[in-house]
Amino acid sequence: MLRQLSSLPLLFRPAGPLHRYHGSLIARFTTTTPASLKQLPPRPKPPPESEIEESFLKGSGPGGQKINKTNSAVQLRHIPTGIVVKSQATRSRSQNRKIARELLAARLDELINGTQSRTAIVSEVKKKRAASKAKKSRRKYRKLAGEKGREEKNEEEEEEEGEEEEGQEEARLHEVEGKTKTTESNNAQQTQATPQGNETR
Amino acid sequence: MPRLPPSVFWRARREISPMAAQLLPACRDLESAANELRWIRQHVRDTRSPIPPELRIWKLVEKRGRGVPLQYVLGTQPFGDLEIKCKPGVLIPRPETEAYTLYLASLLCKDQALSTTPPPSLSILDLCTGTACIPLLLLHALQRYPSLSQTSLYAHGIDISRHAVRLARLNQAHNNHLLSAPSSSSISNHVDNNPKLNFTQASIFSPNLLPILQSHSPQWDVLTCNPPYISASGFRRDTARAVRNYEPRLALIPDAQLAGLASQCKCQPEDVFYARVLEMAAVLQPRRVVLEVGGWAQALRVVDMLSEELMALYRTVEIWRDEPGAGEGRKREVVEFGGREVRVRGEGMGRVVYLYQGTEEGG
């Protein structure tokens, strides 16, 4: 369903130099997720090893053959920012090292890019999906309740209440969409800005 | 072991699950109880069995709660990128072993990258191999380095225990898919570049072993050994309960029958394996020797055991701590030993005595 809808604006987009201006117009009229949201920003790369201080959390003691620890937690500290992340997701230490580095990269991305970071965008998308799902299910049960109510002849109260709720929900959705649109435009600015940044470097 | 307060059990039951409370006597704290319960559930989810999953989880939790090591309960232990099968009767691979094995692999690779002509072969001898975790991880790590793509790798594992040798072969088969050479390397160049790995059941004290090893490879590049190194008093005093009750004594404490040998070569009973391995090293003259030790004092004793001959043969003598790669670029740590400089690397407890015929480049 989502995929179908999101492919619609692409269909209307005329091929040619004008499409850039049309694109924004169409995006304003459609209530579906913009196509760009489907392509989430790439996973951020972990910082260089020289900026990381790694430690393996384990109790004090003789270690080696004398102890058999199952704890393979890995803790990383990013030296320039002081961010500390810890992973004990798996039994494998090498796996935990990878996971901890990904976590640290995500945390740094959040710090630098704020609302445009990958985690923020992903959570936004998830929130939206959950909201639309909740809306659909509410609509479905209202309909069911309505049918039942008609039989019992006291549907009016429920109906009103439901509509009010849906209205609020829709308003919230629009708000969210507005936010994602602003982040989108910011992203575009950033991509424009990067070549200049490279030049200065 | 101090008694756990009842409040911890209440919290485990309320905040995690009644099964976490059952794990507490073995895990000792809430966090690791939650972790282990998660891993047990994961294991049950990932493996098939006709028994209902809830019953399997309950059985495994009960077993772990009794104090059986988690690796024996689940049957595996991750070791680097490999999964090593574990069975009662064979020592479970330790994270310290993993750390120095990977560090050794990086050293070997650096050495190869520096030499202009890569050698055609590299042979590894692992004594007291147990689950075969060391040779398997070394082979796996080495064959992924591009500088070693033209080198044929060979490893040989020796263990006295029948169970260990059988498990070692099982582990070889279990990790075979990870050991075959990467398919991207040109097939036309070399027909078979997969690393070879053999195991022999033998006592390293047997006089017949040395000629056999010499016939296997005229020049061994690496000799690794993680022998039993705990003293009888250390076993009673320092070992964790799960180790004492469930792991094989054979892999932890040198056999009492060898104690006579210890008095012969004037060393402590727990160091008797090092005496023998150093004796073997003097004959085989491997380029590198990596001996796991039980702590700083034992590391110093092993360095002290080096004969004049070995001191002349090995130009580099180092002691590695638990994390030999950590703390790189910090101030050099050095101990003096009879006019000889012994470099100390890494952080943690003394873990490895390292001998190398060459000199380490770069720091």
UniProtKB/TrEMBL annotation, chain A:
Pfam families attached to this UniProt entry: RF-1 (PF00472)
Key words, A-Z: Mitochondrion, Transit peptide
GO terms for biological process, alphabetical: mitochondrial translation
Predominant place of localization: mitochondrion
Biased composition (Acidic residues): 154-168
Key word Mitochondrion present: yes
Biased composition (Polar residues): 183-201
All copies of domain Prokaryotic-type class I peptide chain release factors, residue ranges: 48-143
UniProt-listed PANTHER family: MITOCHONDRIAL TRANSLATION RELEASE FACTOR IN RESCUE (PTHR46203:SF1), PROBABLE PEPTIDE CHAIN RELEASE FACTOR C12ORF65 (PTHR46203)
Taxonomic classification: Eukaryota, Fungi, Dikarya, Ascomycota, Pezizomycotina
The protein, known as: RF-1 domain-containing protein
Compartments it resides in: Mitochondrion
GO CC annotations, alphabetized: mitochondrion
Domain of life: Eukaryota
One GO MF term: translation release factor activity
Similarity-based family: Belongs to the prokaryotic/mitochondrial release factor family.
UniProtKB/TrEMBL annotation, chain B:
Keywords from the UniProt entry: Methyltransferase, Transferase
Entry-linked Gene3D superfamilies: Vaccinia Virus protein VP39
SUPFAM superfamilies: S-adenosyl-L-methionine-dependent methyltransferases
Keyword Methyltransferase: yes
A single Gene Ontology CC term: mitochondrion
Lineage top rank: taxon: Eukaryota
Any one biological process term the GO annotation gives: methylation
CDD domains found in the cross-reference section: AdoMet_MTases
InterPro entries: N5-glutamine_MTase, SAM-dependent_MTases_sf
Kinase as UniProt keyword: no
GO molecular function: methyltransferase activity
Designated name of the protein: S-adenosyl-L-methionine-dependent methyltransferase
